[in-house]
Amino acid sequence: MTLDEILNDIGLNASTLTGGNLDVYSPIDGAKIASVAMDSTADVQGKIENSVAAFKEWRQVPAPRRGELVRIYGGILRAHKETLGALVALECGKIYQEGLGEVQEMIDICDFAVGLSRQLYGLTIASERPQHKMREIWQPLGPVGIISAFNFPVAVWAWNATLALVCGDSVIWKPSEKTPVTALACQALFEQACAQFSDAPQNLSQILIGERDIGEALVDDKRVPLISATGSTAMGRAVGPRVAQRFGKSILELGGNNAIIVAPSADLDLAFQGTVFGSVGTCGQRCTTTRRLFVHTDIYDSLIPRLKKAFSGLSIGNPLDAKTLVGPLIDEQAYLHMEDALNKAQMDGGVVTGGGRVLADQYPNGYYVNPAIVEMPEGTNVHEETFAPILYIFKYTDIEDAIARQNAVPQGLSSSIFTRDMQEAELFTSETGSDCGIANVNIGTSGAEIGGAFGGEKETGGGRESGSDSWKAYMRRMTSTVNYSSALPLAQGITFDTGETE
Ligand code: UN1
Fold first, then answer.
1. 151 lines ligand 1 (CB under 6 A)
2. What is the pTM for the complete model shown?
3. Which strands sit side by side in the sheet containing 171-174, from one edge to the other?
4. Residue 487 falls within a domain, yes or no?
5. Could you tell me if 222 and 334 lie in one domain?
6. Within 13 Å and on the Cβ side, how many CA atoms surround 287?
């Protein structure tokens, strides 16, 4: 599928992709695929104003009716799954299968949000006063600012946007400057949904194209009560305090340093498959990528040679080829970070197998790498996240020690254990087990379903997106007490006699 065919199918006007001041390159071969126009900080002001106006209308549309718009959008995504999936592959370099998976994740969250649109439940609460009723009412919040990363250029936006929309919010999306075309494609499809739906106000969803200054203008604006930001811990460290400074709310989904523990009783076939997909899938560029592996000494020699063999035989290449399992890194900088990390690991006594650039002749401007395994010396750990396919391996003998080492890093996104020992599995998911937002048993660290809340602790930022009750962050909680008596009793039994007589 060529870019023109994709754009045609999606209905994205090719003229919006030329003549702009932001050049976009495909990581496949480094070729320029578009030049899109960046917004100025003045444009940001205008778009936020538009978003406020859209919100004021949208919040009055009944929630199940709002769900209908998301239902239509889900249908449009189903019809364009292949083309949007191919565009994701083309622009961010993940393999086509994973591009399709990402669009499926959008479809799934649309379905979830449609159901949710009839289930924005509040509580009724027993009042301590006679003839009083207390209830909790969830109200629309306002324009939601969404900042997303290059590695999940469409799904993470959809997690946020679909929930925000059924909650009665308008959305403003600042995609990564590396993947603006997929964002414009999602927006074009969303506009098609709006055209089929009479109650959608203008500017219900808008896009901001630009770099850091554009993101900052959004983050700093009081009219945007919620910022949901996905990206590096460094980004979150900048965004979080800025939003807090103006008493805004934020959902931060930041770095991970995810580990798998493989226990002696594990089904090694499952552990093997889960580890390979987790560590090399998306070329190691998921926030849920498996970065560390703690392997019990008893099974080390059964698992590690098998992993090394698999890593050296993976088909690396054009992500649009059906046989490819590992596509390119996003750009040269990512490759240099991988090289640095491998050099550092070697200096720390790690033994590296694999790594290094490949296919440079065929793709001088594409950064393809051999995934790397690093066997780390006893007593070490790795505290930084490198967005590349590097799997650090550690031996362990004691499960509690393995869990402690898994937890002994600044990040807390995803984790898993492969074991058939029920006590170990339950320990891992207990209060003294994994300290991460996601803790799996006999499943790898990546590839979460949309139905659960997604996010993590510590430097991962603490936010939760997607399923479960994450929607509550996109609404304003109102507690309302109604008195239907003819007296005004005070709570806590307080007497406050004004002395007034009739
Ligand atoms: C991300 O990398 O930011 O669990 C999101 C997963 C995907 C989402 C990853 N469903 O790997």
1. yes
2. 0.97
3. 205-207, 171-174, 144-147, 226-230, 249-253
4. no
5. no
6. 31
DSSP 326: B
Residues 171 and 290 in one domain: no
Which residues fall within 8 angstroms of residue 106, CB to CB, at 6 or more apart? 74, 77, 154, 155, 158, 162, 186
Residues 337 and 221 in one domain: no
Give the Å distances, CA to CA, from 410 to 21, 25, 192: 38, 33, 43
One-letter amino acid identity for 232? S
- In a domain? residue 397: yes
Is 146 found in the same domain as 70? yes
**Does 462 map to a domain?**
no
- Cβ of 230 less than 6 Å from ligand 1: yes
- SS3 state of residue 163: helix
Q: What is the dihedral of CA 23, 26, 30, 36, to 10 degrees?
A: -10
9 φ/ψ angles, rounded to the nearest 5 degrees: -65, -40
pLDDT tens-digit series, residues 54-107? 999 999 999 999 999 999 999 999 999 999 999 999 999 999 999 999 999 999
pLDDT digits (tens, 9 = 90+) for 140-170: 999 999 999 999 999 999 999 999 999 999 9
Q: Do residue 233 and residue 281 come from a single domain? A: no
Residue 286 CA, closest ligand 1 atom number: 2
- Tokens 């790594």, residue located: 355
Q: Is 457 helix (H, G, I), strand (E, B) or coil?
A: strand
> Domain span at residue 424?
258-454
What CATH number does the domain containing 73 carry? 3.40.605.10
253 is catalytic: yes
Query: Do both 39 and 175 map to the same domain?
Result: yes
Say how many domains are in the chain.
2
Looking at ligand 1, which atom is closest to the CA of residue 256?
A: 2
